[in-house]
Design a protein that fits this description.
With about 100 residues, the chain is mostly helical. Helix content is about 50%, strand content about 10%. A 3-stranded antiparallel beta sheet has the order 1-2-3, covered by helices on one side. The longest helix has 24 residues. The protein is elongated, with a radius of gyration of 14 Å.
């Protein structure tokens, strides 16, 4: 791991960027992301989090339903994964 520290740190920076991107875009969608210093974002403001979770899953997007009413949790990943999640979420929210 020490021999590849530069690569690992670049990956951490990318994940932080995607996490912050998720937070900003969730806010733009009118949702309530919780502050996060980790690689995931818990967000609320959903009328039916189970329904949103199932609709995202049907689109091939797997996030976490942690059992807190009105909230879901998404992990930050690659740019492509973040883009796919946000596009699917926009579509799901537009249909609910």
């Amino acid at each position: 791991a020490l021999a590849h520290a530069a690569t690992m740190l670049a990956t951490v920076d990318d994940i932080r960027y995607q996490r912050d991107r998720i937070v900003m875009e969730l806010q733009d969608l009118g949702l309530d992301p919780y502050r996060s210093d980790s690689n995931f974002v818990l967000f609320g403001g959903l009328e039916n989090s189970n329904q949103v979770f199932e609709a995202l899953l049907a689109k091939g997007v797997l996030i976490r339903n942690v059992g807190i009413p009105g909230t879901l949790r998404v992990s930050a990943g690659t740019e492509a994964e973040t883009t796919a999640f946000l596009a699917a979420l926009r579509e799901v929210l537009a249909n609910h």
